[in-house]
Amino acid sequence: MSDEPKAMLRIVLLLAAGLLPSLGALVIVPSRGIAIAAAGAAIMAIGFVIWTQRQLAEVNHLRMRDTALRNDVASLEEKVQTQGRELRDIRTCDEVTGVLNRGAFLRGLEETVARDGRLSRSLVFLLIDIEGFRAINTERGRLGGDAVLKTVAAAIQGATRGTDVVGRLGGDEFGIVLGECEDPRPAVNRLFLALQAQNTVEGAVTVHVAVGAVTVENPAQGVDPAELFRLAEGALASVRGHSGSLCARRTLRSDVSSQQTA
């Protein structure tokens, strides 16, 4: 017999031990019945107290098990959510810089075009190239090159809003989508100033970038990514290789250019 049935049997026997003598005493020996009945009542009370404590202990045990189970479930849900975020980061983020990878960036570009098209707002696409990155890699090695990539990525993130799309397109090339934007100059200026500040740090590698900016005035008409990149690459080529950081601007379909310098 298990412990639980044994405990219940003991309680029943205690109750019976108190009840039966009391009833018998009242019938057989009325003069002593009151005293024996009192003793029986005391035994019954003890049995009831034991039974009550047993029930309370069982309730507390069940509550503790329920709390532990809830905590285990909450911990498991948190682990699943954390692993889900880590998996999404692996699929969408560049492993060196932490910004979006090429695939995720292109999806972000597509989503921004669709959103700003619905809002009838213009947007700006920026294509950024690090000047002399191949020489930096040769001189500083792979780790030195990665450090420069991280520096530029941090400067870009600091120059943009949380709603903007920032990604590494490959090599030393980055892309930015400035949603609901007509003029890229404020963001480009912030980027240039951040790089200038970084270049003044003792021992830091001097970093300059070339920027090709394309304003999409009416995303609702649709945007051909190939045409968008063609314009941005053309603008970028016009300022690549110059001293300092430069930005050339284009407008989608009009191909009108101007230049902005650091």
Strand content: 5-15%
CATH topology of the largest domain: Alpha-Beta Plaits
Low-confidence stretches: 254-259
What is the overall shape?
elongated
Distance between the termini: 88 Å
Overall pLDDT: 82
The H-level CATH homologous superfamily of the largest domain, spelled out, is: Reverse transcriptase/Diguanylate cyclase domain
Total of domains: 2
CATH class of the largest domain: Alpha Beta
Which structural class is indicated by helix and strand composition? alpha+beta
As a percent range, the share of helical residues equals 55-70%
Number of β-strand runs: 6
Order of helices and strands: HHHEHEEHEHEE
- For the biggest β-sheet, the strand order reads 2-3-1-4-5-6
Oligomer: single chain
Characteristic key phrases:
262 residues, alpha+beta, Alpha-Beta Plaits, six-stranded mixed β-sheet, 6 helices, 15% strand
Can you describe this structure?
By secondary structure, this protein is α+β, with helices and mostly antiparallel strands. It has 2 domains: 3-90; 102-261, Alpha-Beta Plaits, CATH 3.30.70.270. Helices cover 63% and strands 15% of the residues. It has 6 helices and 6 strands. The protein has helices spanning 3-28, 30-92, 102-119, 133-159, 185-199, 225-239; strands spanning 123-130, 165-170, 173-178, 209-216, 246-251, 258-261. Strands 2-3-1-4-5-6 form a 6-stranded mixed β-sheet, sandwiched between helices. Strand 4, helix 6 and strand 5 (246-251) form a beta-alpha-beta unit. Helix 1 (3-28) packs antiparallel against helix 2 and helix 4 (133-159) crosses helix 5 (185-199). The N and C termini lie far apart (88 Å). Mean pLDDT is 82; it is low at 254-259.
